[in-house]
Design goal:
With about 450 residues, the protein is mainly alpha-helical. The protein is about 75% helix and about 5% strand. A hairpin with a 2-residue loop joins strand 2 and strand 3. Helix 3 runs parallel beside helix 5, helix 4 runs antiparallel to helix 5 and helix 8 runs parallel beside helix 18.
């Protein structure tokens, strides 16, 4: 009977995820009243999928504490939805729903892989959400953040430099250090600081010299990350800056020059840094060194192939055969046990987040906030692309996490802060539109 429940549950989970994903795009064509009802249905679907998944986890693990853990997650997700909606009535319901859905998927998969790690991740998510609740009001009220470009530059470069000098080496990369028993990955937070820094510098750029200064500072961020062998973050910073530069300047020559310089730098890095050569060689043929450097990506490909369209079902696959699966290869674990259809829906949900962020950016009148929204959205989209592309061998593996889904405290906190900032910008946009409507009304009916 248990096996039958497990096999049926995987199809139920796929159907629920597919319906949720479809509604993520249908909502763009709905009016406000219909959209509210659709958002409520998304919440119901999320809780149903969460329940079915934890029912399977309980049947497999047979641990009573899992029931309390499930209840705590339900309370957390419900509280997050209610608090964001009530504290910020103008906030984007779609982004709140996606945030909770992605977190719930991450908690399901991390619990399946390691119960102890899932407890840690849940505590971090809960504490980070409390902090994130204060961010939108800060963005809405504190207008001085638009004037601190050089402060952001010094802070960002200083944090990355500290990591390059003092961080411990983990799997060949210097990306984190431990303070008081807490492991921090500063590059996750510098991503946000970097976007604010570049937005300020690019908007103040009145001449080619100003563009050169901004580019040099961006290049310094990237160079420090390359020296620290944090190649994934370096690529995210680089692509984000190029997009922000093009949008701020509207000059295609800058974009072309940036792509050319980036290509030359990539070739130089291949010959100068051994770890870059290893990543490329493993990407070209992971099975040539299957027992060594190619083992991770080879196991990832096996997992994706084993999952097929419908997955093996929770606890029916072998995702733990992939080293560091909960951080770098969560997409492979999801695909193996929940299936290719579920994984495609997961990508589409992430894409829906990006579309919504772009929509917010395009409708903001303040150019600084517009660039910030664009930069944060680009960072999110590039990180998702690098994670998915790396696990599928579409691009060389970069070792970045899948936002909200992968295990990692710094990643969870920084992504929650990022989404909270975007919510603050969305509220600013709503304030602007409300102000315009009032001006139209008072203009037509003067006192």
């Amino acid at each position: 009977m248990t096996n039958l429940i497990i096999q049926v549950s995987k199809y139920v989970i796929i159907i629920l995820m597919a319906i949720y994903t479809l509604q993520s795009y249908v909502v763009f064509r709905k009016d406000e009243d219909d959209a509210d009802f659709l958002f409520l249905r998304q919440n119901v679907i999320m809780f149903c999928m969460h329940f079915v998944s934890f029912m399977v986890l309980y049947l497999e693990m047979e641990e009573s504490q899992l029931l309390f853990f499930y209840g705590a997650q339900v309370i957390y997700l419900a509280a997050t939805l209610v608090l964001f909606r009530n504290l910020y009535p103008k906030a984007s319901r779609l982004l709140i729903n996606h945030m909770c859905m992605l977190i719930s998927i991450g908690m399901i998969m991390i619990t399946r892989i390691s119960y102890d790690q899932s407890i840690k991740q849940f505590k971090i998510a809960a504490a980070s959400t409390v902090l994130a609740l204060f961010i939108p009001v800060i963005i809405r009220k504190l207008r001085l953040i638009t004037k601190w470009a050089w402060v952001y530059a010094v802070l960002g470069i200083g944090l990355l430099g500290l990591v390059a000098v003092a961080a411990r080496s983990t799997y060949g990369a210097k990306i984190a250090f431990t303070v008081g028993g807490i492991t921090l990955q500063p590059s996750e937070f510098v991503k946000i600081i970097f976007v604010f820094c570049m937005a300020g510098l690019l908007l103040r750029a009145k001449s080619f010299k100003d563009i050169v200064v901004a580019t040099a500072l961006a290049a310094l961020h990237v160079l420090i990350l390359v020296v620290s062998t944090d190649l994934g973050s370096a690529l995210i910073f680089f692509i984000t800056y190029l997009i922000m530069l093009y949008v701020a300047s509207r000059n295609a020559l800058y974009l072309a020059a940036g792509l050319g310089a980036g290509s030359l730098a990539a070739v130089a890095a291949y010959f100068l840094f051994s770890h870059v050569r290893v990543r490329v060689e493993v990407w070209l043929n992971p099975f040539a060194d299957y027992a060594g450097n190619g083992y991770q990506i080879a196991q990832s490909l096996f997992a994706i192939g084993a999952g097929g369209w419908f997955g093996t079902g929770l606890f029916q696959g072998s995702p733990t055969a992939i080293p560091i699966v909960e951080q770098d290869f969560m997409f492979s674990a999801v695909t193996e046990e929940l299936g290719g259809i579920f994984s495609i829906c997961l990508i589409l949900v992430c894409l829906s987040c990006f579309i919504m962020i772009l929509n917010i950016a395009m409708r903001l009148s303040n150019p600084f906030y517009r660039l910030v929204a664009l930069g944060l959205g680009t960072m999110y989209a590039v990180q998702v692309f690098l994670t998915v592309g790396g696990t599928m061998k579409f691009i060389p593996l970069t070792g970045v996490t899948l936002p909200f889904v992968s295990y990692g405290g710094s990643s969870m906190l920084s992504t929650l802060i990022m989404f909270a900032i975007i919510q603050g910008l969305y509220i600013l946009r709503e304030d602007e539109e409300e102000s315009i409507e009032k001006e139209k009304i008072y203009g037509q009916y003067p006192n």
